[in-house]
Amino acid sequence: MEQDASSVAPSFRSLPKGKVIMTMVGVLLAMFMSSLDQTIVDTALPRIMTDLNGFSTYTWVVTVYIITSAFTVPIVGKLTDMYGRKRFYIGGIILFTIASVFSGLSRDMTQLIIARGIQGLGAGAMMANSFTVIADIFPPAERGKYQGIISAVFGLSAILGPLLGGIITDQLSWHWIFFVNIPLGIFNIVLFWFFFPDLRPQGGRKTIDYLGMATLSLGVMSLLLAFSLAGERYEWLSLPVTCLLGFFLIMFVCFLVAEKRSSNPIIPLALFRNRIVSISYAAVFLTAFGMYSAITFIPLFFQGVLGTTATISGSFLTPMMLGQVAGSFVSGQFLSRTGGHYRMQGLIGLVIMCVGLFFMTRLHPASNNSFAILSIVLTGIGVGSIFPVFTIAVQNAVQYRMLGVTTSTIPFIRLIGASVGLSIFGSILTNRFATDFTASLPQDVTDVLSSSQVMELARNPRMLLDLDAQQAMRDTLLNAHINGEQLFEHLMQTLQAALSSALKEIFLIALLFTLLGFVVYLFIKEIPLRKDHGNG
After folding, report:
1. What tens digit of pLDDT does each residue of 416-435 get?
2. Does residue 71 contact residue 215 with C-beta atoms inside 8 Å?
3. How many CB atoms lie within 10 A of CB 344?
4. CA quadruple 475, 479, 480, 482: dihedral positive or negative?
5. What's the helix, strand, coil split of the chain in %, to 5?
6. How far is CA 204 from CA 207, 213, 389, in A?
7. Are residues 386 and 287 in contact, defined by beta-carbon separation less than 8 angstroms?
């Protein structure tokens, strides 16, 4: 039977060597830019929260980015299978760069959250393409090396991001962490415009699954909004939350019906009948809880509990990112050079990640820096080790014509898991902190402070991060009581203990979900990696 031209994979050998090199440079730079932005933002989040009075919306700066990225990834992934990668890649970089400008110009949390949402749309388009481009060119048996390199570049930017974010935040302001994307974005747009090969599938008339796009987008947004609002602004059984969850269920059913009837679905339901694909997707979803809890909340622990500056916090995160780089690179090389034993490598990576998260649950205000760094290094190695494994496993299990949608569904599911996890963690952070703080605040401190002052501290512990606020509180207590300095120390210790307790619970839940991911991945079937792209 003659192979459909639309399913034929391109090959590096059919492209000029210059385009091959520049394509790889462009892909690596795009990955560097998008990941650099995220790690810089993570380090600056505590300061952003302080300046914009956003403790109750601490996770929203990350969550909204994830929400918009999440529903963009599978849609763009499918469209690139139909129309080629180049135009969507360039469009994503342009949108990401423009949104970076508006993020940097933000003057309140609402403006920043909106700008970050737009930035997430561009990042989703970039994520949908990065790993798929490698799969366009190399067969599964060779992809581990190159996807390991991409993951290592992702990790390299993650190494620079925390330190750079800390330095920029301390020396300039957090606004500048977004402006660094502008020169990188412009350079990458030029690079892609002139050098990225415009490889498009051939074939007949293509139909776009508009109903699938609409129901997927509306469903994902309503689900993630429900989890983001529940426990923070509204009770879990409140009318707004239940309405959003009900709307999600309706959209989910409509999406299933649309995909079943569509001749060209956004996410073919047949993917989930593939045992390897479905197990990998489930493991990706569950491990996202552990991955994003570490990346998002460790800077808050360093700065709020251990009392470090943003710069020092960023330098402490560097070992974690080095571990992620090493884990990703070594895992990718092993996949390609030792026969592609993705089941065993995945399980080993998950074990290492679980050990790191377990150590993170043992952190407390008196923890030394060495133990904290050991915890995050192990977590980073585990995260890096599983990155190429899941991608290779699913790409090896499907036909080439399904490559784009199958690959892009991995970051989609990871983002859904991360957003649900961060929403839950954000609720735990605010509620557990407020409860522990008010319950453990010494009586001699409550006798001096007004109830409104206590409630303000319970809602937003900005004093842990703001030296001016600390001095103002110290002066207040010194003027109000003869032992004002001692009362101030008691207050600070109570704030640190309450924040540490809330973060410990977050790390524990992340560990439990990662353990569940390990159990799920035990059931994956390993098949030999193909030496070519395969047919169809």
Report:
1. 787 788 778 877 888 888 88
2. no
3. 12
4. positive
5. 80, 0, 20
6. 10, 21, 35
7. yes
CA–CA gap between residue 304 and residue 145 (Å, rounded)? 39
Q: For the chain, how many residues are written?
A: 536
What pTM was estimated for this model as a whole? 0.71
108-139: per-residue pLDDT in tens? Answer: 777 888 888 889 888 888 877 776 676 666 66
Residue pLDDT, tens place only, 174-206: 788 888 888 888 988 888 888 776 666 555 456
Contact 59, 166 (CB under 8 A): no
Do the Cβ atoms of 196 and 26 come closer than 8 Å?
Answer: yes
Q: Residue 385 and residue 378: Cα distance in Å, rounded?
A: 11
Q: Token digits for 421?
A: 């996890």
Query: Would you call 230 helix, strand, or coil by DSSP?
Result: strand
Name the residue type at position 180: V
Distances (CA, A) of 421 to 57, 411, 482, 509, 514: 15, 15, 46, 9, 12
Closest CA to 365 of 301, 415, 454: 301
Q: Which residues lie across from 234 on neighbouring strands? A: 230
Please report which helix (H) or strand (E) contains residue 243, including its range. helix 239-261
For the stretch 352-383, pLDDT in tens is: 999 999 998 998 888 887 888 888 889 888 88
**Distance, C-alpha 58 to centroid of its chain:** 15
Q: How many alpha carbons lie under 13 Å from residue 173 in its C-beta half-sphere?
A: 11
Mean pLDDT of 250-273: 84
